[in-house]
Design brief:
Chains A, B: GO terms for molecular function: (R)-2-hydroxyglutarate dehydrogenase activity; FAD binding. Chains A, B: Its cofactor is FAD. Chains A, B: This is D-2-hydroxyglutarate dehydrogenase, mitochondrial. The structure is a homodimer of 539-residue chains. The first copy, chain A, is of the alpha+beta class and 539 residues long. Chain A has 4 domains: 143 residues, 2-Layer Sandwich (Alpha-Beta Plaits); 128 residues, Uridine Diphospho-n-acetylenolpyruvylglucosamine Reductase, domain 2 (2-Layer Sandwich); 116 residues, 2-Layer Sandwich (Uridine Diphospho-n-acetylenolpyruvylglucosamine Reductase, domain 3), CATH 3.30.465.10; 81 residues, Alpha-Beta Plaits. Chain A is 33% helix and 19% strand. Chain A has a 7-stranded antiparallel beta sheet, with helices on both faces. In chain A, strand 1 and strand 2 form a beta hairpin. In chain A, helix 12 runs antiparallel to helix 14. At the A-B interface, strand 10, helix 12, helix 14 and helix 20 of A face strand 10, helix 12, helix 14 and helix 20 of B.
C-alpha cells in the first residue's frame, strides 16, 4: 500500500505518488553471511588467511608514538602447557595461521600479535584462566564477536586472547517475565531468532547482529536501531555474572526488574569494554514481538522542517515510533550515486526514515498515515513514501544502512560517531565543510536523530594527513563546546582513549582510574583500552 | 463507557455489567496536601511540632544493640559560625523546635538528634559545606523530601542535616529532545506539572510525588507507577552533577542519550542513597504526554489466570500497557472492609488493575476492549469493569493505592517490599500464612505484577515479637531461595542494611565497601545507611 493511496482514502486527495523502489544489487539490508559482516551499515569482507592479514600494519608499529607495551610477562611454554591441561588442546590455539583472524579488527586498521587464543566453556574455566594470568602478570584481551570499530577487541601487543565464542548457551527464558538468561558468546541474531519463536525479541538490533556476541554488546554498551524504543542496555540488562581480574566470580545475576539493595554494580561492567572484568552470564529483559512494522521515507527542504517532523512524530506516533533516522542530501547522493540505489522520492535537502512497530497493524497504519497527511498538508514534508512489503522495506533501509559502504567508494573515509544536540546536526556538517574547504571530497552527516547520534563522515581520494589535521581536534572541540559525546555508541577502545577528556572531566577520568585499580590492580584486563594512555597500572 | 457496553458493540453480547463506583470518603487518589503525604499509597499525617515528635523513640535508643555512633566530631559553636558565615543565618537552622521535623521519618519509627540543618542554594555551597565537614570529620545526612520508608533520610545520631529543598530550579527544558535539566530539590509533582504544560511528563510517578524531591528519587532509584512503561531511573537519567565527600564537584552532566566514553559513573550515584555523594544537578529524559488513559479492574479465580491475563495483556496491549497491578483477595477485603470502599465487580480470588496510556484514545480503547472481550470469552477473567471518567478512575486506583492505609487499621503492620518471580506471588503469601498460622490477623499480597514487585503485608492487633520472629528471617530466606530482592523499590536505608546479604553475595558487598572507601574515605556521607553495620570507615 502506498502513502498516496492511503491519503486518498482519508481526505480524498492524493498528495504523493509512490514510486516503486528499485531492487538493490546485493540485497545488503540487515542480512549477514559468515564471510561478510555489516557493522553499523558497513559491509566489510573478513579474511582470516594469513596472506591478507599481514597487509595490516601492526598496531605496535603504526601507533608507536602513542603506546608502549606494559610491563607484562611474555607467554612461556609452561603457560601454554597449563592452559592445555585445563582446557584441552583443541581449545588452546597457538598456530600462527589460526591466530591471525583474532589479531586483526574488522576495519583492518589495528593488528596485535597475540600468541595464544583460549576458548573456555564455563565461568569456572575463565576464573582459572584469569587467576593464572593475574598471578603470572600476563595481559588478557577478551574477545567476543570482534566487530569493534575502535580497536577494542584485538590485542595491541601480545595479550592472551580470551574468546567467549564457545560460551553460547541459552540458559533459561521465562515466558512470563520475558527475561532471558544466557551466556556471553551467544550471537545476537541467534538470540533474536530464539525469542521470535516465543513471540519476543531482543531489545537491541545492530547491523553486525550476525556475528556480534551479546557479551560484547553488553561490554561495549552497544546502541543500535531499537534504542529509541527499548532504551539502552543499562535499562534492559537486569543482571550479570562477571569474572574479575584475579579470578573472583562476582554474581550480580538478578533476574528482577527492581532491586534496590545497594550500589548497582552491574552498570560498571556495561560499557567497560572488558577492562574491569569478563561478563560470563547475563539476564536481559526482552520486549514482546511487535505484530506490525511500518516504514516511511520522507524528504524535506530546510533543517527546521526536520526538527518539526521529529517533534510531530514523537507526539503523533508516540508509543509506536521505533526508529527516527536522518540522512542529509550529501549522504543520500553518495549512497544513490556510488551504489546505484534508486531514490523513490524526489530529491530534497534532507531525508528521514521513520519506522513504527506496534501490536496492531491497522492502528499503526492509521496513525502513520494521519501523521504524514498532516505534515504534508502543512508543507513540512516535501515528498515521501510508505514502504509496502518486505522488499520495499529493505530497499528503503538500504538507503540508510549502506551509506557507510558507499562512502568507502569515495576513497578514504574519516569517520566520527558523535552525540550532539539534534538541533545542531546540520550546523556541524556545515561548519566542517567550511573548515575543510576544497580539501574534502565529501562532508556528510546521517544517523539516529531520535537518539541525538550523528555519524559525521568526510571523504578524500586517499588518506591525507593535512585533511586529518584540519578535522582533529576541530571536531572534538566542536563536540565538547556543544556538551556532546565524542563516542556515542562505538565506545572508546584503543583508538579514542586519548580523546576522552573532550567528553569527560579530569575528576571523572580520575575516578575511572581508581575503579580500574580497585578491580584490576595489575591492569591485566584489556590494557591500552578505554583509559587514557598516561594511565600507569601498578605492576 | 462501560466494559459491558463496549463488548456489546463488537460481538453483540453483554458479558459484563458495569457498576457505578462509590465515591471514596477522603478522595485520596494521588492527591497530596502539605499536611498529608501518600507514600506508596500510605497516607500519613506529618507533624513537625515538637510535642508529637518526641513521642518517637530515638533511633540510638530503639536500635541500641544494632548500631553505635561512629568516631565523628560533634558540632561546635565555631562550626555553626562557619556555616552562618557561608549561608547566612536564615539558611542555618539550629532551633530545636525547627529541627524536629528533619529528625523524624514519615513512618515515625526512626528519630535522629541532628543539631543543625543547612539549606544550601548552589552546588558551590554544597561543595564548601562538604569540604568543611570532611576536614572537620563531621558526619552529614543529606535530606530531600524525607519520604524514605527505610529510615534513609534522617540522621541516626547527630549528623549535620543537609537539605536540598532550596535547590528547586528548572534549569532548562529542551522541547526537541525532551531532556529536562533541573536541581535536586524540585518536587516531583511540580516537575510533572511543568512538563505537562509542554506536552511532556516525568518518567516516574509516585504516591509521594507531592513532597518527594527529584534528587531523592534519583538517589534512592525510586520505582513507582510508570516504571513498567518508561523504565527505571538508570535508563531515564542521562546525566548528573555530584558533590563528593571532600567537596569535589563531579560533572557527569551529559544531556545525551548515548555516551560511550568510558565507565558510566552516574549509575553509582543512582540508588546510593547519598552515601557516595550528593546529587546537585540532573538531566532526565522525559516522555511525551500520552493523550489517553484507560483503566480496567478485573477479577479472576485461580492464580494461573492472573498469569495468563498478564501475558495476554503484554501481547495484546503491547506498547500501550502502562500499569499492571495485582491485588489478592485478602488485600481487597481489607481495603473494602476497613475503608468502606465499594468493589465495583463481583468478588474473586484475585484482582488486577490494568492501565493503558497512548497517543490516540480510540485506538487504545479498541485494543483494551478486544483484549478484555477475548479473555472474558475464554473464561480467564470472571468479572471486570472499565473506568469511565476521572472519578471512576480515581475510585479504582483507590482500591489499589489505599491498601496500605487500610492495613494500618488492623493494628500493627509488618511490611515487606520484595522482588520475586511473578509466578510465585501467591505461593509466598500462602507459605507465609502457613508459617504464621493463627498468629497473624491477616497475610496479604499486592503490588506491581508487571515489575515482579510484591508488597507482602502481615497484620496483628499490636506489635508481637513472636510474630515478627516467625516472619524474619523466614521471609528473607524465602526471597533469597527464589533469587529475589529483599528491597525492590524502597532501598536499604538504615533499616535493611543488615539484611543485604540475602540479596547480595559477599563479593558484591565487598566491592560496595571498596567503592564507599574510595569516594568517601572518612565515611562522613549518610553513615549507618546502605552498607552493613560491620563496615568500619577509615577514620
Amino acid at each position: 500500500m502506498s502513502f498516496g493511496s492511503k491519503l486518498l482514502t482519508r481526505r480524498g486527495i492524493a498528495l504523493l505518488q509512490f514510486s516503486s523502489v528499485g531492487k538493490t544489487p546485493c540485497g545488503g539490508f540487515r542480512t549477514f553471511t559468515t564471510s561478510k559482516a555489516n557493522v553499523c551499515g558497513l559491509n566489510i569482507s573478513r579474511n582470516y588467511s594469513s596472506t591478507s592479514t599481514v597487509d595490516v600494519e601492526l598496531t605496535s608499529v603504526r601507533y608507536k608514538d602513542h603506546v608502549q607495551r606494559g610491563n607484562f610477562a611474555a607467554l612461556q611454554p609452561d603457560d601454554v602447557s597449563f592452559f592445555r591441561e585445563k582446557l584441552g588442546k583443541h581449545r588452546v590455539i597457538t598456530d600462527q595461521s589460526d591466530l591471525d583472524g583474532y589479531n586483526v579488527d574488522w576495519l583492518r586498521i589495528v593488528r596485535g600479535s597475540g600468541k595464544i587464543v583460549l576458548k573456555p566453556k564455563t565461568t569456572e574455566e575463565i576464573s582459572i584462566i584469569l587467576k593464572y594470568c593475574n598471578d603470572r602478570n600476563l595481559a588478557v584481551c577478551p574477545q567476543a564477536g570482534n566487530t569493534s570499530l575502535v580497536g577494542g577487541s584485538v590485542p595491541v601487543y601480545d595479550e592472551v586472547i580470551l574468546s567467549t565464542s564457545l560460551m553460547d548457551a541459552v540458559i533459561n527464558f521465562d515466558e512470563w517475565s520475558g527475561v532471558l538468561v544466557c551466556e556471553p558468546g551467544c550471537i545476537l541474531e541467534k538470540l533474536n531468532d530464539y525469542l521470535l519463536d516465543r513471540d519476543f525479541i531482543m531489545p537491541l538490533d545492530l547491523g553486525a547482529k550476525g556475528s556480534c556476541q551479546i557479551g560484547g554488546n553488553v561490554s561495549t554498551n552497544a546502541g543500535g536501531l531499537r534504542l529509541l524504543r527499548y532504551g539502552s542496555l543499562h535499562s534492559t540488562v537486569l543482571g550479570c555474572e562477571v569474572v574479575l581480574a584475579d579470578g573472583t566470580v562476582l554474581d550480580l545475576m538478578s533476574t528482577m526488574k527492581k532491586d534496590n539493595t545497594g550500589y548497582d554494580l552491574k552498570h560498571l561492567f556495561i560499557g567497560a569494554e572488558g577492562t574491569l572484568g569478563i561478563v560470563t552470564k547475563l539476564a536481559i529483559q526482552c520486549p514482546a514481538k511487535p505484530n506490525a512494522i511500518n516504514l516511511a521515507l520522507l524528504g524535506m527542504d530546510g533543517f527546521d522542517k526536520v526538527l518539526t517532523t521529529f517533534k510531530r512524530a514523537k507526539r503523533d506516533l508516540g508509543e509506536i515510533l521505533s526508529s527516527c533516522e536522518y540522512i542529509d542530501t550529501a549522504s543520500m547522493e553518495c549512497v544513490t550515486g556510488n551504489l546505484n540505489l534508486k531514490l523513490p522520492i524526489s530529491q530534497s535537502q534532507f531525508y528521514m526514515v521513520i519506522e513504527t512497530s506496534g501490536s496492531l497493524g491497522e492502528h499503526d497504519e492509521e496513525k502513520l498515515n494521519n501523521f504524514l497527511e498532516d505534515i504534508m498538508e502543512e508543507k513540512i514534508v516535501s515528498d515521501g513514501t510508505i514502504a509496502s512489503g518486505s522488499t520495499q522495506i529493505k530497499d528503503i533501509w538500504a538507503l540508510r544502512e549502506r551509506i557507510a559502504e558507499a562512502l568507502l567508494k569515495d576513497g578514504y573515509c574519516y569517520k566520527y560517531d558523535l552525540s550532539i544536540p539534534l538541533t545542531v546536526f546540520d550546523e556541524l556538517v556545515q561548519d566542517m565543510r567550511t573548515q575543510l574547504g576544497i580539501g574534502a571530497k565529501r562532508v556528510c552527516g546521517y544517523g539516529h536523530l531520535g537518539d541525538s547520534n550523528i555519524h559525521l563522515n568526510i571523504t578524500s581520494e586517499t588518506f591525507d594527513k593535512s585533511v586529518h589535521n584540519k578535522i582533529e581536534p576541530f571536531v572534538y572541540e566542536w563536540v565538547a563546546k556543544h556538551n556532546g559525546s565524542i563516542s556515542a555508541e562505538h565506545g572508546v577502545g584503543f583508538k579514542k582513549r586519548d580523546y576522552l577528556h573532550y567528553s569527560k572531566p579530569n575528576e571523572a577520568i580520575g575516578i575511572m582510574r581508581d575503579i580500574k585499580k580497585l578491580l584490576d590492580p595489575k591492569g591485566i584486563l584489556n590494557p591500552y583500552k578505554v583509559l587514557p594512555s598516561n594511565f600507569s597500572p601498578k605492576i
